[in-house]
Amino acid sequence: MNDFERRGLMLILSSPSGAGKTSIVNTLLKTEQKLKTSISVTTRPKRPGEVDGVDYYFVSVDEFERRLENNEFLEHAEVFGNLYGTPNQFVSDTLGNGEDVVFDIDWQGTQQISQTSRDDLVTVFILPPSLSELENRLRGRNQDTAEVVARRMSEATYELSHWPEYNYVMVNHTLEESVSNVRAILIAERLRRRRQIGLASFVNHMRGIK
Questions:
Q1: Helices 146-160 and 131-140, interaxial angle, to 10°?
Q2: Rounded CA separation 167/17 (Å)
Q3: Best exposed site among 34, 101, 136, 147 by fewest CB in 10 Å?
């Protein structure tokens, strides 16, 4: 519990597809107070079990481009031939309310957000234990065809090259360990002085300064 106001932060988790960032994000959302996720808009086809407005907002290419022209996205990217974008208004409102937003986005989106919102940003890059383990995870989740898995693996080496752009880097050996590490980062970043917007008034009040 804070004794004074805090501005929210944007926590970005990026990784090659299959390295486990989505599982980490979903686990954090179940346990962390004042942590929300921004539901991305995408032109990607809906996968089995996915729900519009819960997993993504599924739209046509024309609708996506219309929103892009209206500057409705905080960031956007094309990934494996599909378009993804983060709605701007939700993020702005959430941060202003002292709550945090967690993102499951790639290096392209991270670069875009860092150009405009660096002070609010905390970035974490998730590495797989090995490329062979990454391939095993992609095949094991049974969501993609063999061709898609091969394409994701071919992209993984390039995606891994972006790790130096992130504040924190970790290897995802187990979900439990990785969630614990990200939670520790979140706690520390929430306590950064620049985010404690009511700190000066709080201390001055204790010192008797008006």
A1: 140
A2: 20
A3: 147
Sign of CA dihedral 32, 187, 73, 105: negative
In whole angstroms, how far apart are CA 125 and each of 35, 172, 181, 204? 19, 10, 12, 38
Pairwise CA distance, residues 98 & 195, whole Å: 9
For the chain, the structural domain boundaries read 10-37+100-206
Please state whether beta strands 121-127 and 10-14 pair in parallel, antiparallel, or not at all (unpaired).
parallel
Q: Encoding tokens for residue 65?
A: 């481009």
pTM of the entire predicted model: 0.83
Separation of CA 207 from chain center: 39
**According to the CATH classification, is domain 10-37+100-206 in 3.40.50.300?**
yes
Reading the chain (210 residues) residue by residue, the pLDDT tens digits are 566 788 899 999 999 888 889 899 999 999 998 999 988 999 999 988 999 998 899 999 999 999 999 999 999 988 889 999 999 999 999 998 999 999 988 898 899 899 888 889 999 999 998 888 888 878 877 666 778 778 888 888 889 999 999 999 999 999 999 999 999 999 999 999 888 888 888 888 889 987
Cα 8 from chain centroid? Answer: 14
